Amino acid sequence: MKIAIVGTGYVGLVTGTCFAEMGTEVYCVDVDEKKIENLKKGIIPIYEPGLEEMVNRNFQSGRLKFTTDLKECINEVEVLFSAVGTPPDEDGSADLKYVLEVAREIGNAINKYVLVVTKSTVPVGTAQKVKHAIQAELDKRGVDVPFDIASNPEFLKEGAAIKDFMSPDRVVVGVESEKAEKLMTKLYRPFLLNNFRVIFMDVPSAEMTKYAANSMLATRISFMNDIANLCEIVGADVNMVRKGIGSDARIGSHFLYPGCGYGGSCFPKDVKALIQTARQNGYPMRLLQSVEEVNEDQKTLLFRKLDKHFGGNLKGKRIALWGLAFKPDTDDMREAPSLVLIDKLLAAGCTVRTYDPVAMDEAKRRFDDKLYYAKDIYDATVDADAIILVTEWKEFRLPSWTAIKKLMNIPLVLDGRNIYDIAELEENGFIYHRIGR
Ligand SMILES: NC(=O)c1ccc[n+]([C@@H]2O[C@H](COP(=O)([O-])OP(=O)(O)OC[C@H]3O[C@@H](n4cnc5c(N)ncnc54)[C@H](O)[C@@H]3O)[C@@H](O)[C@H]2O)c1
């Protein structure tokens, strides 16, 4: 089977590579010439565990091809995935300009049947817009070429993308024809063989499922952050509360970790987009509006704690920032809590010494010479007045506190992910603040 993936970003590259790994012939298409040239040379644009080796192996075998020209492959493939970005518009709704651009390109170029599958996260009704955009181009050309549309939202997590794609909890597919269902069943058969669930449904429900899933997870995080903040006020320990409620089978233990706010390329934008879809349809999403509000506040919490500790006098303070990526195992800093914190620290007159195992290049691109880029957590901590932990990388879990104490000016630790042991920090003479206690 031959397929094309248009948009070779995070999702497109992982999707294309994993399908190639399962024996499918895949064309990965992107308008970014540099990205495509680099991929042909084995240079991977993102950090994702295991991806580089899998891309290169499948590229060498000839099953995975990279091109900037959709026309080169469109009439060879049975299924075409669109995995371009859907960034937030000014009002928070998903900007569909790339999705519709791809649809028009398809309408311009197809001469035979193709199933067009939207993998990008798009609001309900987008598949119909894609269909109309393709048909409008075919009408302009005065040709009658059959095609189908489908929706196959992606649930992979950055940092565990390959595992999530290869062993999914479920695959959601929205179709409106039998032919589309047959093609998608054929494509996902290798996954079905392993007993993973492929859930077929109508297209609007598939589009909605993705937003509902991300909004649910964001809601759990904001809920726990709200509970954590109240725990601090009333003298409870949110870690205990988390264990207490997570052991209830009806609640479950996932996504109950309080912290310094959710970020990344998906939750913030998808929550905003769902609120906006609801608004456009005359329905106020009150719960999600609060989820967003709590998250925005939470991103400033570590700064507020630091400011309070120093009585509002942060000018000239030297701060070690451990972790920049929005979560571990990725170099993605989109909407990361670290961005809000860095801006506030710089505005307050602090110097910021940062370290992240993989996001340093991304931070340099964003902040240039405004930050000090350390070679490890110890270097970041030299003469620091405080350490702020923002991303819970594994390598940050067991630092040598005795060495760190000697390096610091003031032994103050603000833990934005609750990963350290209070007793151990206090025994070592640190002032330790965390979330929700
Ligand atoms: N990143 C994630 O973890 C994740 C997870 C699930 C779903 N999603 C969704 O998947 C979609 C893609 O996200 P991403 O993170 O992979 O985005 P990305 O920005 O990493 O990649 C998008 C790619 O599309 C390319 N592109 C734009 N217009 C094009 C065109 N006309 N033809 C060919 N290529 C074009 C860009 O050059 C870019 O390489 C979004 O809707 C996102 O919400 C992302």
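qc> The mean pLDDT is 97.
qc> done
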